């Protein structure tokens, strides 16, 4: 960097030691990038990265030890977090002059924790000076620096020992994904007391859970940045857009992304922004991952004006004999139950046709109208909703109904929630239907959920303006995982979404299998990442 200015968080009694800072910077810049177009090139620190390294390793107390023992770095995705975290881990393990240093790489799960480890291991392999002094134990996710018998070890919130740590350094990757504060407390509360200058390096993108340890640390960082709190051992860095900023403004993108145009092209951010403008469900994901804003985890998903625009008339008679796929969402026996058929298009001009069916116990109909303030009685009179005798859903009645549908339509498969009613599944199989279990996690639900939104926005789906299905769609709230996968959030969706879930499952099978079990749209263009 052209001109370094010591951090404003340096206390009066501390000093900036240029030699120590230069050493840390030079150590890191002897390493190489490991991924993509940068692979094999020297790790030349960007200005914002060098500022952090000089502040952390060059700001020392009168006794010569580091002033800061905790660094909280919050920054959007694709800014080079993994590379920086790996470099700091290697510096603490191999270049900090600490005998038998214990450095740990922590994350929510072993796979996440392994990301930084793999980068660090590749950096070692590409650096001759380190490679001959370091032993990489890949199966144990462990790197040993032989001259000082120091090590870097991966830990996850899934599996760790609660005692016996003598920590010199901890690198917490994506702190916002920690399921609770247990691992964080074990690693940061007293575990480094026997060391002269332990460093807890916390690096993350903004999260969604405001009750998490990450948000707690985020708030502390903000308080210190704004001068509301003072902690000379805590070093805060937050790159992100303010809540009042216009998230569509390229100037805001630059403010939040210090590596914009270097590690990530502005065209990529622009494309993601355009997608978010078209799809309200993507706005929060864009703001969280691209602009580093803390946003609510669950958001109402479907823009109902777009859904209503797909209310094309559905002629059941014209669908007879056509290939279709079913989605079955079995409620508890006292609740609404949904079965949805999705007919794949027969040509390029055709649409996916959705044919939904709903049942509710007859004896609870009036009670539910009064309690839920939902017009079940009106829907039942209009033929949109069916009732079964008694105060519980009669699965036998539904099985017979589906069997009759199978005589009208060519039902290739029926997808069902694998935790649904086992007996009903067996009965349907006995009738000759192919019944396939369908997972309710991000892996299975995300692709068809995103595809449903895409088809809706493109008006390539026809649902006949079915009011019960519309109600279900309007009730959906979406949960997003750190990788950008989405699924309907049943906890946040307090009203019924069973028909929407059944539609998503049936749509998945229709997309994958089509009219003749040919290759699916997923195969042609990969999974849709909105």
TrEMBL record:
MF-aspect GO terms: endonuclease activity
One Pfam family recorded for the sequence: TerL_ATPase
Domain Terminase large subunit-like ATPase: start-end pairs: 47-219
Source organism superkingdom: Bacteria
Domain Terminase large subunit-like endonuclease: 231-510
Protein name (database record): Terminase large subunit
């Amino acid at each position: 960097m052209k001109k370094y200015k010591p951090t404003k968080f340096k206390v009066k009694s501390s000093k900036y030691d240029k030699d120590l800072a230069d050493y840390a910077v030079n150590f890191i810049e002897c390493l190489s990038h490991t991924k993509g177009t940068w692979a094999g090139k020297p790790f030349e620190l960007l200005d914002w990265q060098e500022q952090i390294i000089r502040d952390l390793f060059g700001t020392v107390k009168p006794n010569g030890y580091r002033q800061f023992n905790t660094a909280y770095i919050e920054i959007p995705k694709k800014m080079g977090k993994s590379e920086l975290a790996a470099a700091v881990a290697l510096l603490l393990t191999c270049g900090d002059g600490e005998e038998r240093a214990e450095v740990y790489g922590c994350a929510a799960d072993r796979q996440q924790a392994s990301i930084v480890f793999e980068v660090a291991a590749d950096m070692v392999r590409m650096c001759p000076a380190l490679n001959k002094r370091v032993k990489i134990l890949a199966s144990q996710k462990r790197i040993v620096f032989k001259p000082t018998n120091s090590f870097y070890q991966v830990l996850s919130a899934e599996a760790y020992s609660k005692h016996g740590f003598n920590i010199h350094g901890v690198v917490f990757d994506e702190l916002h994904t920690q399921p609770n504060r247990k691992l964080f407390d074990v690693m940061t509360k007293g575990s480094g007391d026997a060391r002269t200058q332990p460093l807890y390096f916390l690096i993350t993108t903004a999260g969604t859970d405001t009750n998490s340890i990450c948000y707690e640390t985020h708030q502390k960082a903000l308080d210190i940045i704004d001068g509301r709190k003072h902690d000379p051992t805590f070093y805060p860095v937050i790159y992100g857009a303010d809540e009042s900023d216009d998230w569509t403004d390229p100037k805001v993108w630059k403010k939040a992304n210090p590596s914009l145009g270097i590690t990530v092209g502005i065209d990529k951010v622009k494309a993601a922004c355009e997608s978010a403008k078209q799809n309200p469900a993507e706005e929060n994901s864009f703001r969280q991952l691209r602009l580093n804003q803390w946003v609510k985890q669950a958001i109402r998903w479907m823009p109902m004006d777009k859904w209503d625009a797909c209310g094309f008339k559905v002629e059941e008679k014209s669908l007879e004999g056509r290939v279709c796929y079913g989605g079955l969402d079995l409620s508890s026996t006292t609740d609404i139950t949904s079965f949805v058929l999705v007919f794949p298009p027969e040509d390029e001009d055709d649409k996916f046709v959705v044919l939904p069916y709903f049942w509710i116990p007859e004896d609870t109909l009036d009670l539910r109208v009064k309690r839920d303030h939902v017009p079940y009685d009106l829907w039942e009179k209009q033929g949109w909703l069916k009732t079964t005798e008694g105060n519980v859903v009669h699965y036998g009645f539904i099985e017979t109904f589906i069997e009759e549908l199978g005589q009208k339509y060519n039902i290739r498969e029926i997808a069902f929630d694998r935790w649904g009613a086992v007996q009903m599944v067996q009965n349907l199989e006995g009738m000759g239907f192919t019944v396939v279990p369908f997972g309710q996690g991000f892996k299975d639900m995300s692709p068809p959920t995103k595809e449903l939104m895409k088809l809706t926005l493109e008006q390539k789906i026809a649902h006949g303006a079915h009011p019960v299905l519309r109600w279900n769609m309007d009730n959906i709230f979406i949960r997003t995982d750190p990788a950008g996968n989405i699924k309907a959030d049943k906890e946040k969706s307090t009203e019924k979404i069973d028909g929407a879930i059944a539609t998503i499952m049936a749509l998945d099978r229709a997309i994958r299998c089509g009219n003749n079990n040919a290759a699916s749209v997923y195969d042609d263009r990969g999974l849709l990442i909105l």
